[in-house]
Structures are given as structure tokens and as C-alpha cells.
Write a structure and sequence with these properties.
The protein has 14 helices and 19 strands. The protein folds into two domains: about 180 residues, 3-Layer(aba) Sandwich (Rossmann fold); about 220 residues, 3-Layer(aba) Sandwich (Rossmann fold), CATH 3.40.50.10300. The mean pLDDT is about 90. It is about 35% helix and about 25% strand. The strands form five sheets. The chain has an eight-stranded mixed beta sheet with strand order 12-11-8-13-16-17-18-19, with helices on both faces. Strands 2-1-3-4-5 form a five-stranded parallel beta sheet, sandwiched between helices. It has a two-stranded antiparallel ribbon with strand order 6-7. Helix 5 crosses helix 8. By secondary structure, the chain is an alpha/beta fold. The chain binds ligand PMT. The site of ligand PMT has 27 residues, from helix 10, helix 12 and strand 16.
Length: about 400
């Protein structure tokens, strides 16, 4: 695996050193290209030491005329000798240049000459990320089929909090490996995925919800799309960009999620319910904001529709995969859900305890309980890798279930 790693000029450039090492650890030969701005943050020597290769910095670095000619066509050589172009951090400036075909340095020239897959890891200030110009450029780049990872939400170097932080190096390296090993084993399938929380209103300005970020469900949608599936993603309120090539439907409440699932169920061959659907809602939401008084108040809650249980009754030939988020008795509770909701697989994860699993984190640790009676443990891994394991096991399970019929 030969990877050209373009490093843009942002504070996240220091994380790209870790990315270079993570790629090398996964067996990649890494050729680093640094923009002039990137060199203001990290010295090329850092990357040269980590990759064992000279870092490309300039389009015209040489002094003699023949050397200048050789370096002027070097971007073509780099373009032809690498399997994947990863740009991390992909700054707002680089995204704009890529989107519009501007080529005024080595990296932007290489981008135009590069025929293979491209993975971009944007990182910038929250306002820059949200600016309509950046979002329009993002859409152009997605439309070209480039893979985009991140940015994540969090506290940024500029002091703001919001989306803009570069994805973690391990997650970018995993996405790079996935892009290159892309299997097309889900071609012809339609995968319906639910993701994120639901929001159940208490009054016009308040709601009940939970900590789901949508990362697990989005990782499943992205993994299925990368493997050739037609993907329908039904998502509650999350702060993640719509995955490229995926039909994304946004909902708020459990009832809306239920209606969207059944309105889109017909073409689905695999249904995966990663959403953290609220179990209760207020049946009659007051029209006006609840007034604060000194008195204790109680709110009556009714159960929401159990979408997974209804799917279990109506699934037909579809493969139905539910999740179980438990704080105790993980396997026992997951087994109960597998049977009572007529699922083919339950993805069980412990929540509320581990920092690197369950809600919000970029990684997860799960146990897959299969209708065949077997279980598969997936060790702590980036959610995208967990998603691929779930899809691998789903395909094997379908073969096993068909053979058993
Ligand atoms: O979104 P992230 O931050 O990445 O976090 C991922 C996750 C922890 C949300 C995810 O891995 C996960 O566990 N999702 C399921 C959460 C959940 O609601 O679990 P549960 O055990 O309460 O529900 C069991 C199953 O029934 C789930 O498939 C759920 O989608 C489904 N359900 C629940 C209630 C309801 N009214 N309708 C449903 O369909």
C-alpha cells in the first residue's frame, strides 16, 4: 500500500505525524507532501524521520535548470506511484483549491494529477467549517466521490467549541486502509440504517433525549455504501455531515423515525437499528412553555413505538440487526432482545461506563449475538472498523440461516 500524505497548514498538522506513523504501522509506504503553511507548524524532518523518506515541499525547489525540470514533473511521478492520496489536515484553503482545480503548489498540483481514491480529513475553526463557501466546496468534493473523515466536535485550538477538530489519526489510518481494501460485497443490497438519538418534546422548547452522537450508525451507513450497497440512513438530530452517496432522512421523534423506517422498508434487504430511540414520550405536549413555580411537578410519560419489535414482526426475508445498549448483564439482556424482538443479530455494547465505547466515543467494543446461537466478540476498535465487522458477520449469518432452512 503506497500512500501520498498531504499535510496542510493548520494546528492539526502535528497530529499528521502520528497519522504517518499509524499508516506505516499498517504496512504503508508513506510519501509526505507538506504545503508551505504546514511547514510553519511542523518541520519536514519530523515526517522524514517517521517515514524514512525525503518530504516533498516545493514545486520548484532545485537550483540548476535540469534539476528544476526534473522537479517540475515530480508531482506526476508521485501521482503515478501511489495508490491513495490522504490530505490531513485538509484546511479550508486546500478544500477550496481542490474543489476549483487551482494548482499553485506541489500538493494542489498532485491532487489534479492523481487518478486514485482521495481521503480528506478536514480541520479548521468552527465558523470556517460552517461557512457556506466551505460547505459548498465540501459538497463538490463529495460529489467527486472523495471520502471525507471528520471533522469532529470539541474544543478547538482557537478556543471555540464545535465541529472543526481533525479526526483521530487511528481513525484516519483505518479509513485509508478500508478505502484501499474496499470490498464490493454489498452490491445489489439495500441497507437501511437508523442512527442517533430521538428528541421527545416536553413543551415547545424542552425535550427528552440521550447521549447518542450518531457515530455508530453513520459508520455503518458509510461502511455499507463503501461496499457497494444502496444505503438509506434515517437519523435523529446529530451534528454529523451526511455521508456521501447515502440517502439521508432526518427525523426528530421516535414516532417520526418509526414512520420513516416503514415508509422506506420495502427495498431494504438488511435493516440495522443503531439508533438510541427514546423509550418514553409525553403524549399531549403542551402548546406553551411550562411555567416555573416553587411546586414539584411530575410528568406522565407514555411508551414510544418499539420500532425494532414491529420490524421483527414484519421483516419478511430481510436480515434484521438490532442493538442493545446495557449498563449491566450485557449478554443476558442482549439475548433477551434477540429473542423477544425476533432479530437475526444483536450488537451488544456496554454504555455509561467505558470512555472508549458506547455513546459519543469514536471507538466501540461490542459482542455480536447471532440467531444461530453463536457469539462474536469485537475488541475495542474505531467505529468504522466495528461497522465493517458487523457487515462481515451479517453476510456470513445470512448464508448460515439460508443453509439451515
Ligand atoms: O450514536 P453513538 O454516540 O455512536 O453511540 C452508539 C450507541 C451506543 C447509541 C449504539 O451503539 C447503540 O447501542 N444503539 C442502540 C441504543 C439503544 O437504544 O439500545 P436499547 O437497548 O435501548 O434498544 C434496543 C434496540 O431497540 C435498539 O436497536 C434500538 O434502536 C431499538 N429501539 C429501542 C426503543 C424503541 N422505542 N424502538 C426501537 O427500535
Amino acid at each position: 500500500m503506497r500512500v501520498a500524505l498531504g499535510v496542510g497548514g493548520g494546528i492539526a498538522a502535528y497530529k499528521s505525524a502520528e497519522l504517518a506513523r499509524a499508516l506505516a504501522e499498517r504496512g504503508a509506504q508513506v510519501q509526505v507532501i507538506m504545503t508551505a503553511a504546514a511547514r510553519e507548524f511542523v518541520r519536514p524532518l519530523t515526517f522524514a524521520a517517521l517515514t524514512g523518506r525525503k518530504v516533498v515541499t516545493d514545486l520548484f525547489p532545485a537550483s540548476s535548470e535540469s534539476e528544476a525540470l526534473a522537479s517540475a514533473v515530480e508531482h506526476i511521478g508521485v501521482a503515478q506511484s501511489n495508490d491513495l492520496l490522504v490530505v490531513a489536515p485538509a484546511t479550508a484553503d486546500l478544500m477550496a483549491k481542490f474543489a476549483h482545480g487551482l494548482a499553485d503548489d506541489f500538493l494542489t498540483t498532485l491532487y489534479l494529477a492523481f487518478p486514485g481514491p482521495v481521503l480528506l480529513a478536514p480541520a479548521m475553526n468552527t465558523n470556517m467549517w460552517r461557512h457556506p463557501a466551505t460547505q459548498a466546496n465540501l459538497e463538490l468534493l463529495r460529489g467527486r466521490g472523495h471520502a471525507i473523515i471528520g471533522p469532529e466536535e470539541g474544543e478547538l485550538a482557537c478556543g471555540m467549541t464545535g465541529p472543526g477538530r481533525m479526526a483521530e489519526p487511528a481513525a484516519i489510518a483505518a479509513a485509508a486502509v478500508n478505502l484501499l481494501n474496499r470490498k464490493r460485497d454489498l452490491e445489489g443490497e439495500t441497507v437501511l440504517v437508523t442512527a442517533g438519538p430521538t428528541r421527545e418534546p416536553l413543551d415547545p422548547v424542552r425535550f427528552i433525549s440521550n447521549r447518542s452522537s450518531g457515530k455508530m450508525g453513520y459508520a455503518l451507513a458509510e461502511a455499507a455504501a463503501a461496499r457497494g450497497a444502496n444505503v438509506i440512513l434515517i437519523a435523529g438530530p446529530v451534528h454529523l455531515p451526511d455521508p456521501p452517496g447515502v440517502k439521508t432522512i432526518k427525523v426528530q421523534t421516535a414516532q417520526e423515525m418509526r414512520d420513516a423506517v416503514f415508509a422506506n422498508l420495502e427495498p431494504a434487504t438488511i435493516v440495522i437499528k443503531a439508533a438510541a430511540v427514546a423509550d418514553y414520550h409525553v403524549a399531549n405536549v403542551p402548546q406553551q412553555k411550562l411555567k416555573k413555580t416553587a411546586a414539584r411537578i411530575s410528568i406522565e410519560l407514555d411508551p414510544t413505538p418499539d420500532i425494532l419489535a414491529e420490524l421483527g414482526q414484519k421483516k419478511g426475508d430481510r436480515l434484521l440487526i438490532g442493538f442493545a445498549a446495557e449498563t449491566e448483564n450485557l449478554r443476558q439482556e442482549a439475548r433477551r432482545k434477540l429473542l423477544t424482538k425476533n432479530c437475526d443479530m444483536i450488537v451488544a455494547n456496554l454504555v455509561g461506563q467505558e470512555e472508549n465505547a458506547g455513546f459519543e466515543s469514536d471507538t466501540n467494543e461490542v459482542v455480536l449475538l447471532l440467531a444461530t446461537g453463536s457469539t462474536v466478540s469485537v475488541p475495542p476498535s474505531p467505529k468504522r472498523e466495528v461497522a465493517d465487522r458487523i457487515l462481515d458477520e451479517a453476510l456470513k449469518l445470512r448464508l448460515a440461516l439460508h443453509a439451515a432452512r
